[in-house]
Amino acid sequence: MTPIPMSLPFDSVDLPADAVEVGRIGDAWGVKGWFKVLAFSSQPEALFSSRQWYLQPTDRGPRPFEGTRLMRIRESKEHSGGVVAMAHDVDDRDVAQSLRGTRIFVRRSSFPSTDSEEFYWVDLIGLDVVNREGESLGRVSELIQNAAQAVLVMQYTVGDKQMERMIPFVAAHVDAVDLAGKRITVNWQADY
Predict the structure, then answer these.
(1) Which of 22, 105, 129, 136 has the fewest Cβ atoms nearer than 10 Å?
(2) Do 106 and 21 reside in the same domain of the chain?
């Protein structure tokens, strides 16, 4: 078991209001302080676009720190189908290994911009979904990826019972996404 350093070289900070969890630190990679990153996305552009990662301790196992810490990234890159990174002030394998399991957050404002028909999942969560007739179908609680496409998962209430509805997030069913209006319009009926 790798000993946990008494103090880490990262400033203690508040987690920004627009922070989004994008992955976790995996094992150390090499001997010079590099570490593997377990990205939550198969296209981890947010990790590559930000040079400031906000860290919070793992839920399980040794906790090398408490609260939120700011890690300044020297370099992050794709390697063998995954992501590896190196931070300022992390110069050896022991410090990198002690961070294993640490949660990584990035400011939403540092994400790369998207095309007009592309959306980050985090931006869709919380949007109201209505059909072409204006009937409310629920509010997006999460998105899941199946073998064919992404799927909107919505929560709605019938009487006093919480229900769940799923709609494929594809052009055949999604007419419009209005991020500013916090609304998604779909070609879908409540009884589907």
Answers:
(1) 136
(2) yes
Alpha-carbon span 21 to 15, nearest angstrom: 11
Tell me, yes or no, whether 192 lies in a domain: no
Q: How confident is the model at residue 8 (pLDDT cuts 50, 70, 90)?
A: low
Confidence (pTM) = 0.72
Q: How far apart are CA 180 and CA 90, in angstroms?
A: 40
E strands in 29-180:
35-39, 52-56, 68-79, 82-87, 103-107, 128-131, 136-145, 150-158, 161-168, 174-178
Whether residue 88 lies inside any domain: the answer is: yes
What is the reported pLDDT for 7? 61
Q: What is the pLDDT of residues 88-116, one digit of tens each?
A: 989 889 989 999 999 999 999 888 888 87
| Phi, psi of 166, rounded to the nearest 5 degrees | -125, 140
CB 130 within 8 A of CB 174: no
Can you give the residue range of the structural domain that contains 125?
Answer: 121-186
Provide the number of structural domains found in the chain. 2
Residue-wise pLDDT tens digits, 137-170: 999 999 888 888 889 999 999 999 999 999 999 9
